[in-house]
From TrEMBL:
It is an enzyme of class 3 (hydrolase). Gene3D superfamilies: Divalent-metal-dependent TIM barrel enzymes (3.20.20.150). SUPFAM superfamilies: Xylose isomerase-like. It comes from Pyrobaculum islandicum (strain DSM 4184 / JCM 9189 / GEO3). Keywords: DNA damage, DNA repair, Endonuclease, Hydrolase, Metal-binding, Nuclease, Zinc. This is Endonuclease IV. The keyword Metal-binding applies. GO terms for biological process: base-excision repair. Its EC number is 3.1.21.-. Residues 33-261 form the Xylose isomerase-like TIM barrel domain.
């Protein structure tokens, strides 16, 4: 007879950035301690406006994460477009990713999330090939070996590289790439349609028991469409509870990074909903 424990999801949950609402942290280094004291077990370090952290500080953050048992990830700068028509912009984009990988390596973060590109004049197929080429260059230049994944994020806009098909295919072709499922982005890209179970089943089919990195926030409905503007999760677009129900019946390792404007406050609400369905955070 199968034990109920064989279907226990291993969940890592925390904020995208420094806690500010339930408990105010002074810095990224301090935030690691605060996240643990709040009863959460993950945090994404946000380089979205640029990589301004030194290697030495990255090492200190990593040491703190080990001490407090916090699963770290990194978000690369938003100013990345590997399919730009301008060579200089592509080179600067690649360097931003290289720098993000470098700091992630020194802090022991396991994945660097990136919005890879806009299709632009290349179109989806040529952009796919260009993204693949530039990611290979960036990974080689970073010198991180197999220590860190590049997490290619599912994006909200249909003019951006990052459909579920593209990200999953890329991860099958490049061993250092893993898809990052942003549930709000996928909901927007599919115009308000999201079947959590289908996505989780596809993940298991394609990647087996690989750790799944995801983002969660509600988004705004404006001018007749869903847009990538983050809202508190109580807005229920998409709703979080159906995901919690799916995780309660699955043997999966997953990180849930809360990108709500309320950061750790909504991460704690997510934890409450998970616990309601019998899902406890990994220890």
């Amino acid at each position: 007879m199968d034990s109920v424990f064989e279907l226990m999801a291993r969940v890592y949950l925390g904020p995208a950035g420094i806690p500010q609402y339930v408990a105010k942290a002074r810095s990224t280094l301090d935030a690691v301690r605060v996240v643990r004291e709040l009863g959460l077990n993950a945090m994404e370090v946000e380089f979205v406006q640029g990589v301004r952290m030194s290697r030495e500080l990255a090492k200190q953050v990593g040491k703190a994460a080990q001490e407090y048992n916090i699963k770290l990830s990194v978000h690369a700068p938003y100013f990345i477009n590997l399919c730009s028509e301008e060579t200089d912009k592509v080179e600067k984009s690649r360097q931003r990713l290289v720098d993000s990988l470098d700091r992630a390596y020194y802090m022991g973060a396991w994945v660097v999330v990136v919005h890879a590109a806009y299709y632009g004049k290349l179109g989806p197929q040529k952009c796919y090939e260009k993204v693949k080429e530039e990611l290979e260059k960036a990974y080689k230049e970073s010198g991180v070996g197999s220590g860190v994944y590049v997490g290619v994020e599912i994006t909200a806009r249909t003019n951006q590289f990052g459909s579920i098909e593209e990200t999953f295919k890329l991860a099958k072709e490049l061993p250092f790439v893993t898809p990052v499922v942003d549930w709000g982005h996928l909901y927007a890209r599919n115009n308000g349609v999201l079947n959590y179970g289908e996505v989780l089943d596809l993940w298991t089919k394609e990647f087996g028991d690989r750790h799944m990195h995801t983002h969660f926030t509600s988004i705004r409905y404006r001018n007749g469409k869903y847009v990538d503007e983050h809202e508190p999760i109580e807005r229920n677009m998409p709703p979080f509870e159906p995901l919690a129900k799916e995780l309660s019946a699955r043997d999966i390792t997953i990180t849930l990074i809360c990108e709500s404007p309320l950061l750790e406050k909504d991460a704690l609400l997510m934890k409450e909903i998970l616990e309601k369905h019998g899902v406890r955070l990994a220890t």
